C-alpha cells in the first residue's frame, strides 16, 4: 500500500510504502467504545452541590409547631426551601475508564485506516521552515489545498521548533507529537499531515505494543 509524498510546494515527489494497518477494516463498536472512554477520562469530576447538612443555616426551628397558620417546619436548610440543601445532587466522582493497550493499539490502527481510505492523510517530505513565521505554514497549507480544514500536523518530538512556533497561531491547526497521537484526535481531524519519519515512528510504536 503506497501513498504519494508531496513537497512544500504541493508537488508530487515520490511514493512511500505504508504499514499494513493503514488498510485494515474498522469496527464501529470498538471506535465508539474508545472515543466514549477518552471523553469520559477528560472529565474532572469536581462537580459538587451541598446537602442539607452542609448548608450554612441555623438548626433552630423557624416557628412553633402549632397554631401559627403555617406548615410545619423543622429547619431552614430543608431541601424544600429556597437556598436549602440539594437532594441527590452531583458529588465528586472519578469518571476514569481503563482502556487496555491492545484496544488502544487496534483503535488507532482503525482510525488511521479510515482517514487514509477517505483521502484525509497527506504525506509531506518535510515539515520544517527556515524561520518561525506563520506565513510559512499558511503557504504550505495553501499549497496542499487544505485551507479551512481542521488540520493535525503529526511530527516527531525532535521536529523543527520553528515549525511548531509558526503553526501555533493558525486557527484549527494543531501540531502533535506522533508518539502521543490517539484515536480521538485522528478521527476529529479533517486532514492529518505526516512525514515519512512520522510513518516510521507510528509503525514502530504500534509494533512495540503487545
Question: How is this fold's topology laid out?
Answer:
Elements lengths: L1 E5 L5 E6 L10 H14 L59 H17 L3 E4 L9 H10 L7 E5 L5 H7 L5 E5 L5 H6 L2 E4 L1 H13 L2
Parallel strand pairs: 1-3, 3-6, 4-5, 4-6
Antiparallel strand pairs: 1-2
Q: Your description of this structure?
A:
This protein is 32% helix and 14% strand. With 210 residues, the protein is of the alpha/beta class. It folds into two domains: 2-43 and 100-208, Ribosomal Protein L4, Chain: A, CATH 3.40.1370.10; 46-94, no CATH class. Strands 2-1-3-6-4-5 form a six-stranded mixed β-sheet. Helix 3 (134-143) crosses helix 4. The longest helix is centred in the middle third of the chain and has 17 residues, at 101-117. The radius of gyration is 27 Å and the shape is elongated. The protein starts with a strand and ends with a helix.
Notable traits:
single chain; 210 residues; alpha/beta; Ribosomal Protein L4, Chain: A; 2 domains; six-stranded mixed beta sheet; elongated
Outline:
This protein has helices at 28-41, 101-117, 134-143, 161-167, 183-188, 196-208; strands at residues 2-6, 12-17, 121-124, 151-155, 173-177, 191-194. With 210 residues, the protein is α/β, with parallel strands linked by helices.
Amino acid at each position: 500500500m503506497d501513498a504519494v509524498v508531496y513537497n512544500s510546494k504541493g508537488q508530487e515527489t515520490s511514493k512511500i510504502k505504508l504499514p499494513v494497518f493503514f488498510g485494515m477494516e474498522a469496527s464501529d463498536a470498538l471506535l465508539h467504545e474508545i472515543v466514549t472512554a477518552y471523553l469520559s477520562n477528560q472529565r474532572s469530576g469536581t462537580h459538587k452541590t451541598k446537602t442539607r447538612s452542609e448548608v450554612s443555616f441555623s438548626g433552630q426551628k423557624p416557628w412553633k409547631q402549632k397554631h401559627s397558620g403555617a406548615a410545619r417546619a423543622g429547619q431552614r436548610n430543608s431541601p424544600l426551601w429556597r437556598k436549602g440543601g440539594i437532594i441527590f445532587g452531583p458529588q465528586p466522582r472519578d469518571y476514569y475508564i481503563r482502556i487496555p493497550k491492545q484496544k488502544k493499539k487496534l483503535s488507532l490502527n482503525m482510525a488511521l485506516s479510515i482517514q487514509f481510505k477517505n483521502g484525509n492523510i497527506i504525506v509531506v517530505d518535510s515539515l520544517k521552515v527556515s524561520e518561525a513565521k506563520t506565513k510559512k505554514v499558511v503557504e504550505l497549507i495553501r499549497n496542499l489545498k487544505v485551507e479551512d480544514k481542521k488540520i493535525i500536523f503529526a511530527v516527531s518530538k525532535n521536529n523543527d521548533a520553528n515549525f511548531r512556533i509558526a503553526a501555533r497561531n493558525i486557527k484549527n491547526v494543531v501540531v502533535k507529537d506522533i508518539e502521543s497521537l490517539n484515536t480521538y484526535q485522528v478521527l476529529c481531524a479533517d486532514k492529518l499531515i505526516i512525514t515519512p519519519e512520522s510513518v516510521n515512528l507510528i509503525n514502530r510504536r504500534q509494533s512495540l505494543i503487545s
